[in-house]
Amino acid sequence: MTSLSIHDVEIHIQPIPPHEEARPASHGAAHSRREIEIEARNSLIKEAFGHDAQLLHDEHGSPSIQGFPGYISISHSRQAVALAIAHHPIGIDIEEARNEQLERVRERFATPADSPTLSLLQQWTAKEAVFKAAGTPGLPLTDITVTPTSATTPDGRVYTLSWHQIGSNLLCLAL
C-alpha cells in the first residue's frame, strides 16, 4: 500500500495484481476481477480505519464509513484501488491510459468549454472526481467544465483539481 497526503486529503493506494496472478479461491476457482477489486478496497479501508470499519453507501451510492464524520471517495483502475479521506467533500478517480476507449465515448463527457490543453484522460478523471465530490445524482459529465486547475458544476460550485501520476495510472483529486 502507498499513502500520500495532498492538500488536507489522505490518499491510500493499493495495487491490484494482474488477473492471471489472482490467487485461487478456497474451492479451487480463481477470484473474479471484481472480487479482487473488492478485496483490495476492503484492505485499504481496514488499513485506514481499523478492522471493524464498515463501508456504507447512501441511496445514491456515495460511500462512507460508519461512525466517521468525514468524507471518503473510492476509485479503481485495472491496476490499483484508491481511497481518499477528508473532512470536506472530495472526489477521486484513478485510471490507466486508454485513449481508444475514451475517444469512442468522448461525446459523453468532453465539451468545447473544456480546456484544450488537457488530455482526454485528464478531462475524464477530472469529471469523474468532480461528479463524486459534487454528490449530485444524475449530474451529466458534459455539464462539468474543466480547466487545468479547476472544474465548475452548473450550480456554480468550483472544485480545485490536482493530477498525480501513480505508476501507469493517472489519479485526479477534486476538492
Quick description:
The chain has 175 residues and is an alpha+beta fold. It has helices at 33-49, 99-104, 120-134; strands spanning 2-6, 9-15, 55-57, 63-65, 71-76, 80-86, 91-96, 145-146, 150-152, 158-166, 169-174. Helix content is 22%, strand content 33%.
Question: Could you characterize what this model shows?
Answer:
Helices cover 22% and strands 33% of the residues. The protein is an alpha+beta fold and 175 residues long. Strands 7-11-10-9-8 form a five-stranded antiparallel sheet, covered by helices on one side. A four-stranded antiparallel sheet has the order 1-2-6-5. It has a two-stranded antiparallel sheet with strand order 3-4. The two termini are 23 Å apart. The mean pLDDT is 92.
Topology overview:
Elements: E1 2-6, E2 9-15, H1 33-49, E3 55-57, E4 63-65, E5 71-76, E6 80-86, E7 91-96, H2 99-104, H3 120-134, E8 145-146, E9 150-152, E10 158-166, E11 169-174
Antiparallel strand pairs: 1-2, 2-6, 3-4, 5-6, 7-11, 8-9, 9-10, 10-11
Could you name the key traits of this structure?
175 residues; alpha+beta; four-stranded antiparallel beta sheet; 22% helix
